[in-house]
Design a protein that fits this description.
This protein has one domain (47-175): Thiol Ester Dehydrase, Chain A (Roll), CATH 3.10.129. It is of the alpha+beta class. It has helices at residues 4-19, 28-42, 71-103, 113-125, 153-161, 167-175; strands at 53-55, 59-68, 133-140, 142-152. The longest helix has 33 residues, at 71-103. Helix 3 packs antiparallel against helix 4 and helix 5 runs antiparallel to helix 6 (167-175).
C-alpha cells in the first residue's frame, strides 16, 4: 500500500512525458544567418545591416530595415526605426559634447543630473518628423523597406536649441569636432 502512491505518480509522469508532442527545433544561428544573407542580397548599396546610425563631419544618419505585407506598412516601420536610430546618434554625439564641456574648468553645470536629464529630454522632444529620407524597396512576397534618414549638424543644433536653453552647449554642439 505504501508503494502505491509513488508508483501511481511515476506512472502518471511517464504517461504525460510519452504523450508530449515532439517538435523539430530550428537552430537560431541558422535562422539569423539566413535572414542576414537575405538582407545583404536585396539591400541597396548604402545600407549596412551592421550599422544603425552614424555621424560624419556634417550629418547624422539613421538607418533601418523592416519587412511588411505592403509598401506602406514596411516603409512606416522602417522610417520610425530609422528616426529612433537617428535620435540615438544625436544623443550619443550630445553626450560626447557634454562630457567635453564637463571636463573644462568651471563647467560644473554640465556634470549635474539636472542638465543631463534636461539634455536627454530635449533630444527626445526634438521634432524630426519633417526630415527627408531615402527609402528603397524589395518585393518578393513580403516587402523589404530600407530607410536612411539624415539631418545636418547645423539643423540638429537648431532643433536642439529650440528645446534646450543653453547657448554655450549649442555652440559647442555646432562647432566641436568630438571623436
Amino acid at each position: 500500500m505504501r508503494f502505491t502512491a509513488p508508483l501511481f505518480v511515476t506512472a502518471a509522469l511517464l504517461f504525460f512525458v510519452s504523450c508530449a508532442a515532439t517538435e523539430s527545433t530550428t537552430d537560431p544561428d541558422e535562422t539569423e544567418t539566413a535572414e542576414t544573407e537575405h538582407v545583404e542580397r536585396v539591400a541597396p548599396d548604402w545600407f549596412d545591416s551592421g550599422v544603425n546610425s552614424v555621424m560624419d563631419n556634417a550629418e547624422f544618419h539613421g538607418f533601418s530595415h523592416a519587412i511588411g505585407t505592403d509598401r506602406a506598412e514596411a516603409s512606416g516601420l522602417s522610417r520610425q526605426m530609422a528616426l529612433t536610430n537617428l535620435r540615438f546618434e544625436i544623443d550619443r554625439y550630445a553626450e560626447r559634447v557634454r562630457s567635453h564641456l564637463e571636463g573644462e574648468a568651471g563647467s560644473d553645470p554640465y556634470a549635474t543630473s539636472r542638465f543631463i536629464i534636461s539634455l536627454r529630454n530635449a533630444i527626445q522632444d526634438m521634432d524630426l518628423s519633417g526630415l527627408d529620407d531615402q527609402t528603397e524597396f524589395h518585393d518578393d512576397g513580403a516587402v523589404d523597406s530600407f530607410t536612411r534618414v539624415m539631418i545636418s549638424l547645423d539643423e540638429a543644433a537648431d532643433k536642439l536649441a529650440a528645446k534646450l536653453d543653453d547657448r554655450r552647449f549649442i555652440d559647442a554642439f555646432k562647432n566641436l569636432a568630438v571623436e
